Amino acid sequence: MNSVLLIAFSIIIFIVAYITYGGWLVKKWGIDPTRKTPANTMSDGVDYVPAKAPVLLGHHFASIAGAGPIVGPIVAAMFGWVPVLLWIVVGSVFFGGVHDMGALFASVRHNGRSIGEVIGETMGAKGKKLFAIFAWLTLILVIAAFTNIVAAAFVSTPEAATSSLLFMVLAVGFGYAVYRRGLSLLLGTIIGVVGLAVCVWIGVLFPLNLSIQAWMIILLGYVFIASVTPVWILLQPRDYLNSFLLYAMLAGGIVGLLFLRPEIQLPAFTSFKVGTNYMFPILFITIACGAISGFHSLVGSGTTSKQLDNESDIRLIGYGSMLIEGVLATLAIITAAYLTSTKLADLSSAGGALNVFADGIGTFMSAIGIPFIIAKNFVTLAIAAFALTTLDTATRLARFILQEFFMVDTQKSNTTKTAVNIMTNKYFSTLVTVVLSGALAFKGYQLIWPIFGSANQLLAALALLSLAVWLKQTGRSYKMAIYPMLFMFAVTLTALVLLIMANLANPVILIFAVILFILAIILIIESQKAFKVTEIQEDIK
Amino acid sequence: MAKIIFYGGKGGVGKTTCSTANSINYANKGLKTLLISTDPAHSISDVLEMKIGKKITKIRENLDGLEIDPEYEAELYINRIRENMRTILSNVIVDEINSQLDAAIVSPGTYESALFDKIAEIIIEKFDVYDIIIFDTAPTGHTLRMLTLPDLLEGWMGSLIKRRKSIVNMNKMVKRKYNEKDPVLEILEKRQERFGMIKKIFNDGDNLTIRFVINAEQLPIEETKKAVKMLEKFNIPVETLVINRILPEEIDKEFWLKKKKQEQKYMKDIEKEFSGKTLIKIPLLDSDMNKNTIDRLAEYFII
Amino acid sequence: MDRLKQFFLNFGLFFKGATDYKGRAYELLDAETKNDMDNFILICFSDQLGIPLPISYYTLELLPFLIDEIEDWDKRMDKRKSVWEERWAKYNLDP
């Protein structure tokens, strides 16, 4: 079986689904091209600015692209490539696509307000606080998982470690030159892109070998420092330069794949139980970002819904970008599937999922003439760069939640006042976040990833629930949101129970899983009440 | 280098009289003195029986006087802002903001701020012109607040300036059109400088002293005790107390008859001035008012 | 033929949006800057919201110079009521 067939399969199914199921959703939800969007009615030249659909699609996709859709499928390859591919395809079409598109639609109809707010409203005041805790825990998981993933990749590909460090220096230089000193953006970009190439090249010459523990500590230190520095120094330049890396990598990877056309060697299906992992629920929660991910709804309702020019663009941007991410996930599974089981196991233990992916894309790119080691280094750098930016952003957001959560009325005793002052202090709250994530990170991402996947999909389930509540309240059909939501609840709650049972000797993991489980139950109960409500404001119909 | 004297004390202890007398004393010694009233009642005009206005008026040789009218000052300030706006913005926008500015005139903090501003202005301007500047301030609470203001305002201004500087820098980074000289920053820094100057003057023990006027009665003593403690906390020394209205050593019938005659004249004045209104007459009792004696007084309130 | 041309045009726009170099390069920085400006205005004119600060009287004279920054300020402040709106929305976190 040739891998190109897999990609072709995904793309064709996605196109068909986009036209049929996507079209059906448009009809069922009453997406109305004649209705003015918030970008037009509330246009303020700042956030609410209408944008052309393809531009917005590109922007939205760049925002949701990350390391998630790559790690998930490769880890899940233990079950064989067929289950993985099926879940990616079915998930993206019936779960993730509905979730993303629905969240975008709901946000547009709520005057462009963020889904986080809408979810909070569905929950009620108590639920809102619980949701904040839940989101914070999820962020901790993100930080822990990604720290581990990047550290593992640096161990197997020490060239990328050097390149990443150099990239950081490059980013700071870019930030200083372009933002502080006013260097023209075009010139800065050109120098930046060339600089990236230089980073890759120097990395190959001077690989940096350290143990995984050492890397994790360094990365946690980096995360702490990066997330408290002003945005223009590190985060903004990195975020910007990353997109160039991503597209170069994608282009190179896909072209290389079409050139090489490797055969699939991995077993199509292994077993319903691999080690201690049952396919239900583990397969489904392992592949979150490539099938259904709660974070997407928070992104879509951040900027995209405020810039949507016409409701007819909702399908393209909401449903379409999820499908594109599905293609990315398919690419990821191919990098595992063209290997033999032994080779896959070797690469995984040497440097985790990231190593497998980089090795694969590197091999594909070498088919079009790029030296393998340079290609592999480049890919590792690209994904690590995304992961590091994600780390930085996640830590900041976690800190904001802590600060908001602890901003209580300080009319009480003096001890409360001091406690509040400490907890809302920028450095302390970041420290708490980083230390907690660090404790988790050292457990290894194999243990964390399932919890992260569960939390992510729980988030998605909550978004679907809010979506269903709103659809029901406005008299639209809502079953297409309910069934995926029920499945998600089933999968994540089962996974959490299994994790609890498997980690009774592991206090850190155990506590996390238990807290998440309890929170999930409470949140479900809180939003059950919302289902009973039938009144609704006129303007958010 | 003027010496600045603030007169504090509970209402009715005779601050105005004392501060006026003190200033006359200095003037007679040949020191150029400026007497300033910040009390809204402006009793100095009453004591001297001459009109002292919003501009510095000569009272007599070596003595000038001034009454600060905070409302007037506030209006002056806001009208200046209005004029400023007309030169920068279109009339349409100025109209919209006018109501905001009108509201500002009656806002709670305005009175105090305008008062403080005028005091600061006078001190800075006249510091090298006069030898003595005496303030007859309003009853106790205001004095305290006023003296701690420079420190507070300097701190606030400092934080505002820091923020503004950061904003200007960040705007340069996103290439928004920004003037080389940010007018907002300029204004803030000028203010900051001014507060700094006042703070320095206030904090120099040689420059500034506070004199409290008290009567030999319970309530003024209590209040002044608290005030002195409070001021010590802020490092503002109270070195001199003026004990007003001390009964003469030899009290004889002559003394009291004279006082009673004077009082009767004023009683007639009251009855004439306020005819038609109900008058409740309460005698001067021979002991202080406290929780035991207050009942005696209660009897007099027949309505 | 026309549709094909349109498709390629859109494809180009997609990549423009994806890299969107003028936009993305300043997105986060811009958001942070606007937040800071709004905070500054809040402090300067908190009086108008019924929260008098010691400096309220003195910040009045800044009014003419801050008119541009005040435009739509109240709408923006309304959006900042929740951390979801203000922070999460802007930072585009997706793992």
Question: Layout of SSEs?
Answer:
The complex is a heterotrimer of chains A (541), B (303) and C (95).
Chain A: H1 3-19, H2 21-29, H3 38-41, H4 53-64, H5 68-76, H6 81-109, H7 115-156, H8 158-180, H9 185-205, H10 212-228, H11 235-260, E1 273-274, E2 277-278, H12 279-286, H13 294-307, H14 313-337, H15 341-366, H16 372-406, H17 414-423, H18 426-441, H19 445-473, H20 479-502, H21 507-532
Antiparallel strand pairs in A: 1-2
Chain B: E1 3-8, H1 15-29, E2 33-37, H2 43-48, E3 57-60, E4 63-67, H3 70-88, H4 91-105, H5 110-126, E5 132-136, H6 140-173, H7 183-203, E6 208-215, H8 218-233, E7 240-244, H9 253-273, H10 294-298
Parallel strand pairs in B: 1-5, 1-6, 2-4, 2-5, 6-7
Antiparallel strand pairs in B: 3-4
Chain C: H1 2-19, H2 21-24, H3 27-44, H4 56-59, H5 67-70, H6 73-79, H7 83-91
Textual characterization of the structure:
The complex is a heterotrimer of chains A (541), B (303) and C (95). Chain A is mostly helical and 541 residues long. Chain A has helices spanning 3-19, 21-29, 38-41, 53-64, 68-76, 81-109, 115-156, 158-180, 185-205, 212-228, 235-260, 279-286, 294-307, 313-337, 341-366, 372-406, 414-423, 426-441, 445-473, 479-502, 507-532, and strands at 273-274, 277-278. In chain A, a hairpin with a 2-residue loop joins strand 1 (273-274) and strand 2 (277-278). In chain A, helix 1 runs parallel beside helix 2 and helix 8 packs across helix 16. The longest helix of chain A has 42 residues, at 115-156. By secondary structure, chain B is of the alpha/beta class. The longest helix of chain B has 34 residues, at 140-173. Chain B is elongated. Chain B has 2 domains: 3-244, Rossmann fold (3-Layer(aba) Sandwich); 253-298, no CATH class. The model of chain B has no long low-confidence stretch (mean pLDDT 83). Chain C has 95 residues and is mostly helical. Helices cover 67% and strands 0% of the residues of chain C. The longest helix of chain C is centred in the N-terminal third of the chain and has 18 residues, at 2-19. Chain C is elongated and about 70 Å long. The two termini of chain C are 40 Å apart. The model of chain C has no long low-confidence stretch (mean pLDDT 76). The chains are: A mainly alpha (541), B alpha/beta (303), C mainly alpha (95). At the A-C interface, helix 4, helix 7, helix 9, helix 11 and helix 13 of A face helix 1, helix 2, helix 3, helix 6 and helix 7 of C.
